[in-house]
Amino acid sequence: MSTDPSRHRFEDVDWNEIERTRSLVTSQRLIFVVGLVVLFAMYTYDSYTGLYFLGTWEVETLDWLVFAGLVFIGSFVGVPLVRHGARTKQIVRRIVSRPAHAIAMGFLSLLAFSGIVGPAIYGDVRISFGNQYNPPIGSTSKMGWANQCAGEVTTAADGFTRLCHGSMANPLGTNHRGQPMGYLLIEGASVAMDVVLFTLAFVVPLAAIVGIVAGFRGGRIDDLLMSYVDVQLCIPAILVFIMGYMYWNVSLLLLLVTFGLLSWGGIARIVRSETLQRREDGYVLVARSLGASAPYIGRRHIIPNITNTLVPAVFHLLALFVLVEAGIAFLGFHHIETYSWGSTIQEGLTLSVSTGQSYVDPPATSSKLWWVSTLPAIALTITLVSLKLSGDALRDALDPRQTN
Amino acid sequence: MSSNANSTTTSTRSNEPLLSVDGLRTFIETEREQFPAVDGVSFSVDRGETVCIVGESGSGKSVTCESLTGIVPQPPARITDGQITFDGKRIDGASERELRSIRGDRIAHVFQNPQQALDPVYTVGDQIVEAMTIHGQRSGTSARERAISLLRKVGIPRADDRIDEYPHEFSGGMRQRVAIAIALAADPDLLVADEPTTAVDVTVQAKLIELLRDLTDDDTAILLITHDLRVVASLADSVVVMYGGTIVERGPVDTVFSTPAHPYTQALFDSYDGLSRRNDRSARGELPSDGCRFRAECPYAEPACEGGDQPDFYTLDSDADHSVSCVHFSPDGDPERVLDASTEVHSVSEVSR
């Protein structure tokens, strides 16, 4: 690095935009409220008319919650990022300067884009068992007697077995229901994004607020909050989820609510212990001596100074939740129409259950139909690695003292 | 007893002081005990005046100053007693909300450690502007312009470039200058500086003293905590000497330096000289919790020093503003016993050389 990034000048900062803390109406809050109102109007319209907004995509309760989460993240993270454009540029520059971090963040952006927009574009893909087990491009599979193949069909050397070749119609192949793998991967990305956004919008703020309040106020409030966290840490989320699974409709929402509301204790504890250290720092005393209120100090001075610990911990939690969701779906505790990566991997590995007997002949082994389980497994792995790397990338980029 | 101790404070200045503290008591509570870190302190600061509080570590200087606007951490501290009047208004026992409106805006603080005083994640400009925006004084371009002019005022070269730099790009002395700029940002009436020159090296100290001297020319009153008599000599209008949570002597800087009256003040000046006249300052034992706090070390201690509160303040014959909390200066006592021993006479110019 020939230039020292921390020495960049910020002449182009619009200082008029720096908010006055006393005013209740800030652009962040305004956008948040307007966003929620618009969302509520759309929800009301949707539930009374039942019309589709986008293609044939049916918006469900969880989607509405994720939209609300997006509004929250957009107004309280996105707006400051746009307003402090120079600082944002500097952060982006720092992330890009490390190739591994840049690739990880790039992949996550792609995942976010395909996960949020993809399902709306794809719509519902009809199940057509006839098209099952079409291979990806550059690969072949044996065809059953009633099997249709979108690509070229050749006869094998034995003169009897028909081979289906991969084609552009289904570039990544299809599964046992004839659904294109691309569609399944995007559906899986959408599920992963639901997990990530729900956690970011509801679980992390809860944990951060509890941790900061406990650490900053101390005394009885601290005791109360932390003993609650201790109790909560004793309740296994998976048990609660399976009990919910038995008594209610199984859904991704149930999984997110049980795991989300029972698993934030660790982050709260980290935030609390960091807050205990930071609140003794000189700049907190300076801020108090300038007349700053406790919530203001927590927001402006504590949180930015604990990102070193908080950001990697949050991304670890995100990776963990994505993995937990995939694991639970792999075990089969998922809604039948939620095509999580976990459930797709499981379907690809246990063909004896999922194979329509009449279509594939002779009964194929899972290694011959490798793409069904391998592709989502690769997607899941890259996602987890990217989440962990992005945590480190953001931690490094957010600290102005780092001069890489 | 303590009530007429306060009433003996006489001020020749006609208008009322900017800040007056009367009988302030702040306890520090630990799990097992509570002890008074500040035990009945009374002093006042006039408009535009520079008052120095001197005393050794643990004498309650910092707790006194942090009790003024209630920024001393509570708990463990607890302000139990005393009247604090600022600009004609009682601010002791004021609500947190009222105190917040005074902090920074009217009474600003500078602290000892410049390494920690700045938030590492914001530029120095952000932090100076923040001090103005907290009280809604100004924002936007005018705040930035004022921040640049403040940086110039505290002597930071290339201020319009350096305003966008982060604290880690500043040296310790420069950071302390920035901290002073932050304190001055909201244009306070009173600047409380808690040993601002202690944590920086000697050459920087001299420059900071220079800076503070420039500031004392303004109409901002300064309450300066220090244990450096050189700083006192070059800056102060009047001096308050603290020992063991109490004030033992106070008065105009000239007379306190020329005739240090309290045995502790004399000992303090001696220790600065390094030419101690007396080797009889006894080893420090337990700090007495009543009577004259200094008596365990005082060569002139006598039974009258024991019991009750810290002795009343008695004015010296030489200067009506100079008063001392020592029984030897009472109408029944013999001041010459204490003063005679102090053969060496200090002067402000001698110390501030």
UniProtKB/TrEMBL annotation, chain A:
Predominant place of localization: membrane
Domain of life: Archaea
UniProt-listed InterPro entries: BP-dependent_transpt_permease (IPR050366), MetI-like (IPR000515), MetI-like_sf (IPR035906)
Transmembrane segments: 29-45, 65-82, 102-122, 195-216, 228-247, 253-271, 309-333, 369-387
Cell compartment(s), UniProt: Cell membrane
Gene3D superfamilies xref list: MetI-like
The UniProt record lists the keyword Transmembrane: yes
GO cellular component: plasma membrane
UniProt domain ABC transmembrane type-1: residue ranges: 189-391
Membrane topology: Multi-pass membrane protein
Family listed: Belongs to the binding-protein-dependent transport system permease family.
UniProt cross-references to PANTHER family, sorted A to Z: D,D-DIPEPTIDE TRANSPORT SYSTEM PERMEASE PROTEIN DDPC-RELATED, OLIGOPEPTIDE TRANSPORT SYSTEM PERMEASE PROTEIN APPC
Protein name per UniProt: Binding-protein-dependent transport system inner membrane protein
From TrEMBL, chain B:
Classification via SMART domains: AAA (SM00382)
Cellular component terms per the entry's GO annotation: plasma membrane
Subunit structure: The complex is composed of two ATP-binding proteins (NikD and NikE), two transmembrane proteins (NikB and NikC) and a solute-binding protein (NikA).
Reactions catalysed, as given in the entry: Ni(2+)(out) + ATP + H2O = Ni(2+)(in) + ADP + phosphate + H(+)
Claim: Membrane is one of the keywords in the record: yes
The EC number(s) this enzyme carries: 7.2.2.11
EC main group: translocase
Biased composition (Polar residues): 344-353
Region (Disordered): 331-353
Principal subcellular localisation of the protein: membrane
Keyword terms: ATP-binding, Cell membrane, Ion transport, Membrane, Nucleotide-binding, Translocase, Transport
Official protein name in the record: Nickel import system ATP-binding protein NikD
